[in-house]
Amino acid sequence: MAMLKILIIEDELVHLNVMKAKLEYEGYSVLVATDGEAGYRMVKDENPDLVLLDIILPKMNGFEVLERLKKDGSTVPIIVVSNSGQPVEVDRAMKMGARDYLVKAEFNPADVLEKVEKVLGKADSSPKNHKSSETTQSKAAEPEDALIVKSSGGGGKARILIVEDDKFLRDLIVQKLKREGFLTFEALDGEEGLKMVEEKLPDLILLDLILPGLDGFEVLRRVKGDKQLSQIPVIVLSNLGQKEDMDRALSGGAEDFMVKAHFTPNEIIAKIKVVLKKKYF
């Protein structure tokens, strides 16, 4: 049986790579386009079984893509990926032919898969089965993969604090860390992040730079300026990729700097393990 083909039209590389990885893992063939014009051409040329379509795109936005495909008489099912989730935007997309929608700030990879399989008529085949198999894999892998550390938080599994306001990326990293046997804590902004550093004394901090309230640079400065907290390693994970931003973070005490669009979630987890082993072993 041929693999079902899904086209993702999305210009935010972090979200694009995460959706692509999840769908490929589940056995789909995935095509990608990073602007509306390219995406529109690929729908016509590749005839995918389903399209995941962002609304805010370069060259041609998602509504324009929907309008052109409707004029062409295309019957390819489309799931719209909305930044805002505003009812007016979603209603407009559905009236233009979209079959379903996702809101970026509220979904995780499992939600993407569930929507895709619902639209493709495979709803019975899996979200529950996939989740149960992942849980089984997680339990089996936990004793082998969990890093045991003697640190500020006491002996036991490594404790990771993720300070990240992007729910999609945060949920994905947390899920992967838990599967590897780590203990995780989450903060959505800089002030909450600082509070949790003091309360939880994590073994490592994964820190975004662009945050509500206190930004990541200020969080890093305060952590490294506190004698009780300064030894906790910090990995910066950010959309900012300018050399001056990297230099500022590294000179401020960060162990490493990772640009979100340049690394997969698995590579982020691998870096966390490297830094932990370097610090505690």
Give a summary of the structure in a few sentences.
The chain has eleven helices and twelve strands.
Description:
The structure is a single chain. With 281 residues, this protein is an alpha/beta fold. It has 2 domains: 5-123, Rossmann fold, CATH 3.40.50; 140-280, Rossmann fold (3-Layer(aba) Sandwich). The chain has helices at residues 13-25, 36-46, 62-72, 87-95, 109-119, 127-145, 167-179, 190-200, 216-224, 243-251, 265-280; strands at residues 5-9, 29-33, 50-54, 78-82, 100-103, 148-149, 156-157, 159-163, 183-187, 204-207, 234-238, 256-259. The strands form 3 sheets. The protein has a 5-stranded parallel β-sheet, sandwiched between helices. Strands 9-8-10-11-12 form a 5-stranded parallel β-sheet, with helices on both faces. The protein has a two-stranded antiparallel ribbon with strand order 6-7. The termini are far apart. Residues 123-144 and 150-154 have low confidence and may be disordered.
